[in-house]
Amino acid sequence: MPGPRVWSSRDSTSRQRWRRRIFTVPAILIGFLAFLVLLVPALIVGGIVDLLTRRRGSTVRLAIYAVWWAWLESAGVFWAAVLWMRYAPLGQLDSRSSRGAHSQLQRWWSTNLVRGARTLLGMAHGLEGREALRSGGPLIVLARHGSQGDALLVASILATAGLRPRFVLKRQLLWDPCLDIVGHRIPNYFVDRNSTDNQTELGHIRRLACDLEDDEAIVIFPEGTRYSEAKREKAIDLLGTAAPERVASARRLRHVLPIRTAGLLAILEAAPSTDLLFLNHVGVHDFRTLADLWRNIPFPVPLRFHATRSSRNEAPGAGELVGWLDARWEDFDTWVATNTPEPSGLPTRF
Predict the structure, then answer these.
(1) In 291-341, beta strands by DSSP E
(2) Domain 14-339 classified CATH 3.30.70?
(3) Separation of alpha carbons 228 and 145, rounded Å
(4) How far apart are CA 270 and CA 267, in angstroms?
(5) For residues 268 and 321, is the Cβ–Cβ distance under 8 A?
């Protein structure tokens, strides 16, 4: 039998949660009030900056979105507090009803963040292969890691399809208070990518994949990080020592990183009859700084997602499984190369 679910091997103890939240929760509430008070001056200054730099409202749009984001974060924390008062006194915080209510909160939060980006930042996105989601779950979602907003966009896509996601995410995202609080009340795992105890991390990921319900999907970003040529070369060097038979496939990749197989294989082992959904995308740029984001508002190209579904019967046995996954990831790379759009000014809606 699987053991108890753990959300993080080092950050989910009561002490760690309170140490983090005693800073992040007041910070987001105070930040929202500060953004609100400073909005009018920011709009005046932003309008002047946009006029002088001939921007299409980039500064003004970003200022309004900052208030929208802070409001959603604050409202999400408040909503989570209401749910705690409803379920915790009766010892039902881990009940099916509570998980459903928190999943509804997650859906509201993610879809409204995306809706705000679409309206205020000029972000357009669409999904090809939507029929892959129509037959429902459970699903194992293998998503390309292209930007810092990937998890948010994937959550929104799955919510639209009526699926509740379980995410494998990096532990640094726990500093988002809404994601931290709600993410600890529904099944997720915040992985420590620098852990020296790999087996403990894999055991918790394996537990996360157990008992998936028909309206659930477990999401993993098997590249582990965003693409760069330097990261690709490092991954190839590591494979040369750990799995030399995979090097030839990895060298053929030009736009995505080779799959890190350990966490994915743990999920496949725990959910042996669950279908796989491969979720690719183009048009998402890695905005490392606020300046990068500002320069790309409104978004110059649409975000284009592509989903394909593989029945678990299509996947080979353990001996050939990694090779089959590498081949599918090469298909990912080819699709990215073929469909990466050129900036064309105004974004196009799907």
Answers:
(1) 303-310
(2) no
(3) 11
(4) 5
(5) yes
Output the CA–CA distances (angstroms, integers) from residue 68 to 85, 124, 281, in the order listed.
Answer: 26, 18, 26
For residue 226 the two structure tokens come to 């965003």
**CA separation for the pair 293, 287 (Å, rounded):** 6
Return the H-helix or E-strand segment holding 301: none
Give the other-Cβ count within 10 Å of 209's Cβ. Answer: 26
Beta-strand runs (E) in the chain: 125-128, 139-143, 164-170, 189-191, 216-220, 275-282, 303-310
The encoded tokens of residue 247 equal 């090097």
Q: Cβ of 12: how many Cβ atoms within 10 Å? A: 19
Return the structure tokens found at 85. 């008062």
Rounded Cα gap, residues 289 and 121, in angstroms: 16
Measured at the CA of 143, the angle between CA 151 and CA 299, to 5 degrees, comes to: 60
Spatial separation of the C-alpha atoms in residues 107 and 99, rounded to whole Å: 12
Domain boundary assignment for the chain: 14-339
Residue 215: phi, psi to the nearest 5? -110, 25
Two tokens, residue 145: 């890691």
Q: Per-residue confidence of the chain (350 residues) as pLDDT tens digits? A: 466 789 998 899 999 999 999 999 999 999 999 999 999 999 999 999 999 988 889 999 999 999 999 999 999 999 999 999 999 999 999 999 999 999 999 999 999 999 999 999 998 888 999 999 988 879 999 999 877 778 888 998 999 899 999 999 999 999 999 999 999 999 999 998 777 668 989 999 999 999 999 999 999 999 988 888 899 999 999 999 999 999 999 999 999 999 999 999 999 999 999 999 999 988 766 566 778 788 888 888 888 899 999 999 999 988 899 999 999 999 999 999 998 876 544 333 33
- What's the whole-model pTM score? 0.89
Q: What is the DSSP letter of 281?
A: E
298 cis-preceded (ω within 30 degrees of 0): yes
